[in-house]
Amino acid sequence: MLKFDFFSYANSFFNCEEYNKFYSRKDYYIEKLNKSEMIGWTREIKKDLVSNLKTTAEYIKNNFDCLVIIGIGGSFLGSYAFKKAFSSYFNDQSFEIIYAGTTLSSKYLDELLKCLNTKNFCLNIISKSGETLETKITYKILKDALKRKYNEEELKRHIIITTDKFNGSLREEINKVQYKSFEIPKDIGGRFSFITAAHLLPLALNFDIEKIIDGYYDGKRLIDQGYQYAVIRYLLFKSGKYIENFCIYEENLYYFTEWLKQLFGETEGKNNLGIFPTSTIYPRDLHSLGQFIQEGNKILFETHIKITNVKNYVEYNGKSLHFINNILEESVMKAHYKGQTPSLEIEIEELTVENLSSLIYFFELASAFSAMLFEVEPFNQPGVEIYKQEVKKSLKEVS
Ligand code: PA5
């Protein structure tokens, strides 16, 4: 179960009448969202796809030492963040997944190649466009490594491509070479693709994806809260709070906040508008950025993600350590509120697969509503193209 409190530590920072005015437009924005061509992520996933994903995951587990995922942005963050959220801190027994494609570091790639040299690995390249520079470069390097070991026919056992149904160079490669493949539907953009093979295949190696899917669609009942959250963020922005700091109290959720940064950053950061998303891990960062948040420039608001109950019981002076962690969260909200930083709170009753998937749906909805309140298109990211053009131009100049 998820609980939301957007008022206790924030309502003095926005005008109630304005809130009511925007809140009364909820149905208009829901209708607007429903008319979008890019909301495939709200539609039910097909049963035969789910069984194909499960069978493929079994095939990978039974035949390989590890899976190497190549992808960037929305093509890797969802599954990465989700897996990390449930990983053991010191004793990770899960099926090994190595993520590549987010860096052009020679050191990283060189060490990765050496590490893979002794492993029997399967490669899953994930790219909706099939044209992303970092993904393409990494794919070529790792595929060449496979080619040094296997012939064309053997290679087919080692490569899985997840891409757009019709377009892009990866789709052409599938058509030519008949690699095993999965589709990212036309009406689902990268950062909204959690409920597609892009994320569900890697997750199927270590999770019951049916639980993930059930939890995700259960998030649909949070449409009201999703809209409320979007409205309050928007009103906070209008009162000069230009930065949203996602605060977590469990380090396992760090990559979940990375996912959030991408989701909100790319969805609403357009036309010189939007809220800049950032994150802190508490209590660690109370001893660094905490000073700025308490007494520095008043441009921030915070969204605290609290886990109410945990299974791990550690005692400190007759009390549960988790109880103390939760007291800390409440105290931080109070202190920051006194320092003119408002706080919104999202409570996860227990960190389960279902609850985290529901939260993913909630945030996807909220980010789409938020972009619509800013009157920008939620489902594109034209700004991301500009650096790519610069790289291409510079590469041409030097070659
Ligand atoms: O959300 C998005 O659409 C982007 O972040 C993309 O996921 C990212 O740029 C990678 O694109 P692609 O999957 O086409 O390689």
Description:
- With 399 residues, the protein is an alpha/beta fold.
- The protein is built from 16 helices and twelve strands.
- It has two domains: 2-35 and 215-373, Glucose-6-phosphate isomerase like protein, domain 1 (Rossmann fold, 3-Layer(aba) Sandwich); 40-207, Glucose-6-phosphate isomerase like protein, domain 1 (Rossmann fold, 3-Layer(aba) Sandwich), CATH 3.40.50.
- The protein has helices spanning 16-23, 26-35, 47-63, 77-86, 106-117, 133-147, 152-158, 169-177, 197-204, 209-218, 223-238, 254-268, 289-295, 321-338, 353-373, 383-398; strands at 2-9, 66-70, 97-100, 121-127, 159-164, 180-184, 243-248, 276-281, 300-309, 315-316, 319-320, 343-350.
- The strands form three sheets. The chain has a five-stranded mixed beta sheet, with helices on both faces.
- α12 (254-268) links the parallel β7 (243-248) and β8.
- Bound molecules: 5-phosphoarabinonic acid.
Architecture per CATH nomenclature, i.e. the level-2 architecture of the largest domain: 3-Layer(aba) Sandwich
Report low-confidence residues grouped into runs of 5 or more. none
Overall average residue pLDDT:
97
The CATH class of the largest domain, by name, is Alpha Beta
Largest sheet data: 5 strands, mixed
- Domain tally: 2
Order of helices and strands: EHHHEHEHEHHEHEHHHEHEHEEEHEHH
CATH level 3 topology of the largest domain = Rossmann fold
Shape: globular
Distance between the first and last residues' Cα: 56 Å
Number of strands: 12
Proportion of residues in helical segments:
40-55%
Beta-strand residue fraction: 15-25%
Structural class: alpha/beta
CATH superfamily of the largest domain: Glucose-6-phosphate isomerase like protein, domain 1
Ligand types: 5-phosphoarabinonic acid
What is the helix tally? Answer: 16
**Radius of gyration from CA coordinates:** 22 Å
Strand order of the largest sheet: 1-12-9-7-8
